[in-house]
Design brief:
The complex is a heterodimer of chains A (103) and B (247). Chain A contains 4 helices and 2 strands; from the N terminus they run H-H-E-E-H-H. Chain A has 103 residues and is mainly alpha-helical. Chain A has a domain at 63-103. In chain A, strands 1-2 form a two-stranded antiparallel sheet. Chain B has one domain. Helices cover 78% and strands 0% of the residues of chain B. The two termini of chain B are 30 Å apart. The chains are: A mainly alpha (103), B mainly alpha (247).
């Protein structure tokens, strides 16, 4: 029940944010600071989510098979693999490292 | 001169972007059910939230043990760029009436990139609508397939699905790292995350990184602002197209 509340809240906020762009005055767009913050915020959040999903387990930091997944995904991206391939490579790397006995 | 719809470059690009992007709804669906959501909740996120980065952020925070509030915070902050896209689409297409409310829902990375990559007004329109609606249809379809498959898999770790989540976030970040400034922001936010994970509740370090990112964006040098903004637009158009169409 509570999870439903958070899901629907996230959906409402996401839609209102999108709609906001159609309702605010056009000159806001020419404010470079607004555009720059939107860009840095996106990069910063994705970097944080990447790292948190790689090394964090709750409040513990640790290195495990997910680090191998990160490295394999980076190589795939460097080779310009499409997104879905990158995701599969990450999964395969983590699965294989676990088969080899890594945590 | 307006071309016929079937040979329209905006519609063609939009369709290939729609299919290519929609397919990775598979990974979202599978990861979502392994982070504790059920199939219906997963589909609601794709239908109503409909913004890949925010959806992955929401389930990523929950999977890491974060609270519902932290998940909402991360998803909402990651969606702020869509407001900027909305302003761009609004000035480019000037949708009126109910079309404006539909346009808002399909305002995402891919529809903006496809639209702005076109050169004629009618193609801007076709690119935006075909990519936006195309991604919406295929993303939701493949989310359902992924969620059902994820449910059938059993132990997610054995199949490396936590590695898939890491790869997905890196894949979303990668095309945005073309400039040195973006790289510096990414490193600073990654460091802030690692330093605060042991001392703050799960999910909160991501919001700390958001504060760091906003501060860096606010403080960014004035003379680089204009060029960076242009570069960001060009990047998103170029990179999204090349990566998605290449799929």
């Amino acid at each position: 029940m509570t999870l439903w509340f958070w899901i629907l809240l996230a959906c409402v906020l996401a839609y209102l944010t999108k709609l906001l762009g159609y309702l605010v005055p056009l000159k806001w767009l020419t404010n470079p600071r607004v555009a720059r913050i939107a860009t840095t915020l996106t990069v910063g959040l994705l970097a944080s989510l990447t790292v948190a999903n790689t090394v964090a387990s709750g409040q513990q930091l640790g290195l495990d098979s997910r680090l191998g997944a990160l490295g394999a995904a980076a190589v795939a991206l460097w080779l310009k693999a499409p997104f879905i391939v990158v995701v599969i490579v990450g999964a395969l790397a983590a699965a294989c490292l676990r088969l080899l006995g890594l945590p | 001169m307006a071309t016929k719809f079937r040979s329209s470059p905006g519609a063609k690009t939009g369709l290939s972007v729609g299919i290519a992007t929609g397919v990775y709804g598979l990974s979202f669906g599978a990861l979502s059910v392994t982070s504790g959501l059920d199939v219906f909740q997963t589909c609601v996120l794709s239908l109503l939230l409909f913004s890949g980065g925010s959806q992955f952020a929401f389930i990523g925070v929950l999977a890491g043990g974060g609270s519902g509030a932290a998940a909402v915070g991360a998803a909402a902050l990651l969606g702020i760029r869509n407001a900027v896209y909305g302003m761009q689409i609004n000035s480019l297409l000037k949708p009126r009436g109910v079309r404006r409310f539909v346009a808002a829902q399909v305002t995402i990375d891919e529809s903006l990139a496809t639209s702005t990559a076109q050169t004629e007004p009618v193609e801007h329109q076709r690119g935006f609508w075909v990519a936006g609606v195309g991604v919406f249809v295929f993303w939701n379809l493949f989310t359902l397939v992924g969620a059902l498959a994820g449910n059938a898999l059993g132990d997610p770790k054995q199949f490396g699905l936590d590695g898939a989540a890491v790869a997905a976030f890196l894949g979303l970040l990668w095309p945005r790292l073309r400039s040195r400034d973006a790289g510096a922001v990414a490193v600073a936010c990654a460091l802030a995350t690692v330093l605060t994970v042991p001392i703050l509740p799960p999910g909160i370090p991501i919001l700390v990184a958001a504060v760091v990112a906003v501060s860096l964006g606010w403080a960014g040098s004035k003379n680089s602002a204009g060029s960076q903004q242009k570069a960001a637009g060009a990047h998103s158009a170029g990179s999204e197209n090349s990566t998605e169409i290449g799929a």
